[in-house]
Specification:
Distance between the termini: 101 Å
Radius of gyration: 42 Å
Helix content: over 70%
Largest sheet: none
Number of strands: 0
């Protein structure tokens, strides 16, 4: 009985084995082609991703370049505005002084002295060398002579600032710093004082003293908040 049951079980198992499907084998030889095709697809995808990364890198660099250009142009515009404001101040000073003298002549001619006329004429001559004739090298001694002759003139602070700017443009930083320092120390109420502090900061930068430059800029921001000089000082600080 046991043998019969065992034989029946073996027979069923054998039939199952025989009935089980054989594993499918690709005998057509196309598996290599599929692998090669997949490799080409993967390589193409990788190449596309690499090119996209390159384009992104170029775009990021272009954005950075444009940002730097915009910042540079903004600084140059502010410099131009500052220069324009200085020229307006100089023109206003020049127009105001003769008008005041004219009133004095009309009301009390005897009070107008030759020395005051010499003071005005000397200052106008030095300024005209810059604004009208563009003879900058000759303007330097003209301002120096005016400062030496009229140290207490109402134009003295402006003359020192002009002198400092002319020397700064010639990279004579030590002499330029002396002129700007004169404005800062001798004329606390001058409208050129904040601008002179900014220039002293720029001179410190150009001569390699970044810490000193930072102190000058911070001083401008503190003492002349919301002024054109303070805006330039903030830009200089932001660049540190």
């Amino acid at each position: 009985m046991k043998r019969a049951v065992l034989s029946a079980v073996i027979g069923v198992w054998a039939g199952t084995v025989v009935a089980a499907p054989a594993p499918v084998e690709d005998i057509s030889g196309n598996s290599g082609d599929r692998v090669a095709r997949l490799e080409r697809i993967i390589k193409a995808k990788q190449q596309s991703e690499f090119e996209m990364l390159q384009r992104l890198d170029r775009l990021q660099q272009e954005v950075q370049d444009l940002r730097g250009l915009a910042e540079q142009q903004n600084y140059q515009i502010n410099q131009m505005l500052q220069r324009q404001r200085q020229l307006y101040d100089e023109i206003a000073d020049l127009s105001a002084k003769p008008a005041s003298s004219a009133v004095t002549v009309e009301t009390a001619a005897s009070n107008v002295t030759s020395s005051s006329l010499g003071e005005t004429a000397s200052y106008e001559h030095a300024v005209n060398l810059v604004l009208k004739e563009r003879r900058y090298d000759e303007a330097i001694p003209a301002f120096q002579q005016f400062i030496a002759s009229y140290p207490k003139s109402s134009y003295a602070s402006n003359a020192n600032y002009w002198l400092g700017q002319l020397l700064y443009n010639k990279n004579q930083f030590a002499d330029a710093a002396n002129a700007f320092n004169a404005v800062v120390e001798r004329y606390p109420d001058s409208n050129k004082r904040g601008d002179s502090l900014v220039k002293l900061g720029m001179i410190a930068e150009k001569t390699g003293d970044a810490a000193k430059a930072k102190r000058y800029y911070q001083r401008v921001v503190k003492e002349y908040a919301n002024s054109a000089a303070a805006r330039i000082a903030k830009q200089q600080l932001a660049g540190k």
